[in-house]
Amino acid sequence: MRQAPATTARVTATAPSPGLADVWAHPLLRCILQGQSVRQRLDQRHPWVLDTAVVLAVALLSLPDLLSSSRHGPFGDPTEHSHWPVPVRVAFTAALVVPLWWRRRTPAVTYGVISAVLLAQWSLGVWQQTGMAALVALYSLALHGSLRVLAWGAALTAAELVLAVGLLAPVKHPLLGLFFLMGTTTAAIAIGLTLRIRRLYLAALEDRATRLEIEQDQRVRLTTAAERTRITREMHDIIGHNLSVMVSVADGAAALATNRGETTADALRILADTGRQAMSELRRVLGVLREDQDDERLLGPQPRVHDLDPLLTRVRAAGLPVTYRTTGDLDALGSGVQLTVYRIVQEALTNSLKHAGPGATADVTVNRDSATVHVKVTDSGTAAAGARSGDAGHGLVGIRERAAMYGGTVSVGSPAAGHGWVVDVVLHVPAGDHQP
């Protein structure tokens, strides 16, 4: 019931997470988060920019192997490149670097091409810095590719590394080399899987938030429909009663005019027939609402303002002390307005009984002036606003719908003191809406 509607005057702001606030307060972490946000927006708009940057970065790391004819390979083994022409080394580098441009669109194919080129390169006894392209390919496969293909790729990479270090391109320190290569391979796969799990987690949170928002909106719509149906039933009783009185008075006046020989008898009969036709149409249109609740036989009359005294007596007996003050001639209000005032007070006090807590008190004030009726219900409960604002129930929706019938305004929230709860409703009552 305490869900804030569109007409709520007070809005409770949710405090930011302390942990996130601490992160943003740190200059370095704030720069990292801001940089990540900028990169994500740029990647969404122009995905080719990041792919090209990765290709260029790996290509630049291969320049020492292309420019120098004598380089020391990894793990202390001297590897001479002089007997391999520069075009061959450039071809190997291009075959390792260029496939990275498609690493996110076709990660399995990219890894397969790079793995095959590396195997051919190691078969010739050549080690190049461009071999790190395999790490990028494995990372992309773990992040974007199939997990089954990733498992086969990890096993194939381990087998290739053992074969390369032990047979194809022996190194001076094989155990150290194998440990380093296996470690970097595992790290690339682990980073890719970590980011993949993070993306799935964030996607699940977004989907859950979307579904909760949809469910909340559906609950509000269903509750609004139920309250409108309930209000319609009650107004059906009031309007039907008034029409019945009008038809009876018109019939009596027509009979009296006929006995006296007055010319108004025909007009009164037309008035009575029109009233009966209106009652028939009203039953036909709104009768389906009665069929939905055949088990609810409302044999008593609809409550009015004077029925607030028994209501407050029951609330006091339930343990909530209530004070009640009125000003103005409330008994002269129309039946619909009196029913609306009664329901507003009833729903507000019901909510206070649920949420105010022990030791709380309530105050009900109903003021009537020439054009408005002001209903205010307050309690001194100590429960926080967040604890009171659960799912939107029938209470607040019903108050809002009833107030809307009379062009009213609804204000719900905590008072300025910060404790308790206030339901403040102003109804605009037409001058002619009064008891006959």
Automatic annotation (TrEMBL):
Residues 44-199 form the DUF7134 domain. It comes from the Bacteria. SUPFAM superfamilies: ATPase domain of HSP90 chaperone/DNA topoisomerase II/histidine kinase. Its EC number is 2.7.13.3. InterPro entries: DUF7134, HATPase_C_sf, HATPase_dom, Sensor_HK_TwoCompSys, Sig_transdc_His_kin_sub3_dim/P. The keyword RNA-binding does not apply. It catalyses: ATP + protein L-histidine = ADP + protein N-phospho-L-histidine. One of its GO terms (molecular function) is phosphorelay sensor kinase activity. Residues 337-428 form the Histidine kinase/HSP90-like ATPase domain. Residues 227-293 form the Signal transduction histidine kinase subgroup 3 dimerisation and phosphoacceptor domain. One of its GO terms (cellular component) is membrane. Keywords: ATP-binding, Kinase, Membrane, Nucleotide-binding, Phosphoprotein, Transferase, Transmembrane, Transmembrane helix, Two-component regulatory system. The keyword Phosphoprotein applies. The chain crosses the membrane at residues 48-64, 84-102, 109-129, 149-168, 175-195. It is an enzyme of class 2 (transferase). PANTHER family: NITRATE/NITRITE SENSOR PROTEIN NARX-RELATED, NITRATE_NITRITE SENSOR PROTEIN NARQ. This is histidine kinase.
